[in-house]
Amino acid sequence: MEQPDWHGPLTEAYEQATRFLTGLPSRPVGSRASLSQLRASLGGPLPAAGVDARAVIAQLASAADPGIVASPSGRFFGFVIGGATPAALAADWLTATWDQNAGLYAAGPAAAVVEEVAGGWLRDLFGLPAHASVGFVTGAQMSHVTALAAARHEVLRRVGWDVETGGLHGAPRITVLAGADRHSTIDRALRFLGIGTAALVPVKVDAEGRLIVDALRETLSSLDGPAIVCAQLGNVNTGAFDPIGEICDVAQTAGAWVHVDGAFGLWAAASPRLRHLVTGVERADSWTTDAHKWLNVPYDSGLVFCAHPAAHRAAMGVRAAYLVHAGGDERDALDYNPEFSRRARGFPVYAALRTLGRDGVSALVDRCCALATRFADRMSGHVLNDVVLNQVLLNLGPHTADIVHRVQAEGTCWVSGTTWQGNPAMRFSVSNFTTDESDIDLAADTILHLTT
């Protein structure tokens, strides 16, 4: 067996990585290079002769650096992107080193057991049923695809249709109900699954984007046939929570499957102070969340849970003669997600959870929410939403969209733009474990200065 030079390139990568991470407090948060500059520094023809591996890593880091957005920074407030805790990042490095194919138990026993253990810890943190199945996927998008595939299987099975065999042609029509201010990944999942966006019936929402239960009840009463209701915990603009307990009452009385989009809001269940926001969540049929948001593990890391493991497995499972399938208590991950060969995403999740513990996860969520409230207080008079979680929505006047771009270019912090109720707005999300009061105050000072 050949013995490559691991030391050279890995040492260079370690040095580059630690230089980047320790430099985050003083680094401009946004990208500092144009598209043409990045194409020039990273492009060119493929060389005929190979280049020394350590030199390649050094050159890659140097050329890419101006185009790297410092999203792990405590002053990155765009989208809903967490950082990566030291333990999670270290476990991710080991994940790449071990290079396990986590589809089958036989190909990665430790990877399979780590997912089993971490999945159980998460079920407990979120207060979900102990029997719920778990899948580790890339993010909320594929989590929705997986959960809604299980829902598609089950609601059609109940009316006598085997969708895995017969497909959707000729099948009873499925109706999907979701709030008018749902996340676009729901629509995209329906496209992927062949259900189609025409099957979506938008349900009225209130001023914060919360689904109105009476409107859901009225809409459901007019339907006949299989139905799926999608609830949202954590509106991507306002952070608002649909009343999940009431939604389960109404939807399940009508025989509908309830799917929860909890991409970041489900983490409120881990906080005793915020758990009231998700009262009744355990009664849903499937749940989506992301670990690369509030758990602060590296991308990509999404999770799907299903209260009906048989439906989950029927939608996702696969058999082939050449595969070594689990035959006893072992768990084959490919039975619970849409991938075949896949990265062992459970290792960073396991490391993050074990390092933080139950109290640490709760403290992380509470801290980010308290910092969002601090920011909202500093921006008093500009806040558009009721700050119940980690999201703050701002109206900075007729030049709001321009101010967003100016903040991004200035570099002190990074924020997102959005459109809320037809008007441009600034979206400020606190999701990083390193963010502190000084980061919030500096961001507020910078935005206020650029607004004047």
TrEMBL record:
The UniProt entry, under Gene3D superfamilies, shows: Aspartate Aminotransferase, domain 1 (3.90.1150.10), Type I PLP-dependent aspartate aminotransferase-like (Major domain) (3.40.640.10)
Superkingdom = Bacteria
* Pfam families according to UniProt: Pyridoxal_deC
Q: Which residues carry this modification: N6-(pyridoxal phosphate)lysine?
A: K293
UniProt keywords (A-Z) are: Aminotransferase, Decarboxylase, Lyase, Pyridoxal phosphate, Transferase
Q: What does the record list as GO biological process?
A: carboxylic acid metabolic process
Annotated membrane-spanning segments are none
Q: Give the cofactors, semicolon-separated.
A: pyridoxal 5'-phosphate
> Any idea which GO molecular function terms this record carries?
aromatic-L-amino-acid decarboxylase activity; pyridoxal phosphate binding; transaminase activity
What does the similarity note say?
A: Belongs to the group II decarboxylase family.
Mind telling me what this protein is named?
Aspartate aminotransferase family protein
Q: Look up and give the organism this protein is from.
A: Dactylosporangium siamense
